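Figure 2 data, in text form.
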Amino acid sequence: MASVLSSILNPMLPFQMLLKLYSLCVLVVDIIWVYLNTIYAIIGSVYGFFNPPQLKSLDDETALVIGAGRGVGQSIALQLAELGVVVICVDINEKNNRNTVKLIKHKSTSAVHSYTCDITKKDNVVDLSKKIEKEVGFVSMLFYCCGIPSPRSLVTQPPQDIHVTLDLTLTSYFWLIDQYMPQMKAKNHGHIVALTSVAGLSYLKDQMPLSVAQFAVQGLAESLMEDLRVNKVNGVHVTLTHIYPFIVEENSQLRLKISSFFGSITPEKAAASILDSVRRNYPEASIPKHFLYLGHLLRILPRKATVLIRDLLDTGVDFA
């Protein structure tokens, strides 16, 4: 009786009930919409695995390769030039950088430019970007290869100073993105490529500063992707590639715990795999490719399970 009297005395009550019912219906519809699109995305991902997107053309592209003096960075610069890309090689080691330029001129007819720069200093990055804009023009692709340690350095050298590691791996990347991303957004055209070691997926023994920095690079790449999505910039792409450092041979004899599973590849093959992912506009990739799915698996499994898997896959690396 009291509830009836209350409904009569409160004419707003039916309206409030309808409002709650409407909100519930909207929530149910949203949940169904998300569920259906999630299923569609999973199906699309499986289909894309067996039928990958076509390779995009790199004609008329200008690529800035940071860390082009050696290793994977050098191989990326060489293969970009062979694809007809104007290549801008940047490295702190002038001798190595000049050697890369000589190799490019010997193997291709693409235009190539060389700059020596210590990118750990912001003023140097700003000056470099101004000089490149004046002498070369718009940079449509940015490859940042400086934060990838060599296999031997991870084992034989002590960890770097925290500030040095963060400056080289992460802070410098921020400065470069700050210089080139606005132009890419304005033209709605460009590609940012972030390379990380496997430390971006899991901790490496006695290399905590590096692991933290690599995790941060992964967060930076994902933040860039989200920024582009929110601002509806569909012509600029970001590709995050995880490189397992002991996979890439650099004239070293390695003994691996599960050699049949890991194997090894040359910097040239690693660069080819990276460029394949970039030309297909993949948001995330890994070297070797199956490690990407392992990384996804480690993110969803319970902590104890991930520890067991990491112990199993521990490289147990030793130099012969």
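Caption note: The longest strand covers residues 190-197.
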